[in-house]
Amino acid sequence: MTAADDLLSESEISDGLASLPGWIREGDTLMRSVRASSFLGGIDLVNAVARAAEDANHHPDITIRWRELTFALSTHSAGGLTAKDLAMASRIDRIVEAGESTD
Ligand SMILES: C[C@H](O)[C@H](O)[C@H]1CNC2=NC(N)=NC(=O)C2=N1
């Protein structure tokens, strides 16, 4: 079993992505874009993700372009993808699903 901050193997990454349909892998990063229903709705979403990131002590890079939010996950201390990234991606999906409608 992979410790939380050990680098994932290729098969662990593809297995993890199989249950993260909104995410793509770009090198050492997992990325998901979300279109919020409004700019402030997107900011609310960013705040909810920020609280989860603080709680997990694992922080996504977040890009905000009006209503388009992009979350990017990688484990900087490990120099690549770890179980922490998969776990945070799943938490972000749950926050998005629970929150406002997004396109
Ligand atoms: C000191 C603190 O625990 C570390 O810097 C945490 C904070 N959040 C983090 N977030 C991410 N994405 N990668 C890290 O390696 C990381 N390390």
From TrEMBL:
This is Putative pterin-4-alpha-carbinolamine dehydratase. SUPFAM superfamilies: PCD-like. It is an enzyme of class 4 (lyase). One of its GO terms (biological process) is tetrahydrobiopterin biosynthetic process. It comes from Mumia flava. It catalyses: (4aS,6R)-4a-hydroxy-L-erythro-5,6,7,8-tetrahydrobiopterin = (6R)-L-erythro-6,7-dihydrobiopterin + H2O. The lineage of its organism: Bacteria, Bacillati, Actinomycetota, Actinomycetes, Propionibacteriales. Keywords: Lyase. GO terms for molecular function: 4-alpha-hydroxytetrahydrobiopterin dehydratase activity. Its EC number is 4.2.1.96. It comes from the Bacteria. Belongs to the pterin-4-alpha-carbinolamine dehydratase family. InterPro entries: PCD_sf, Pterin_deHydtase.
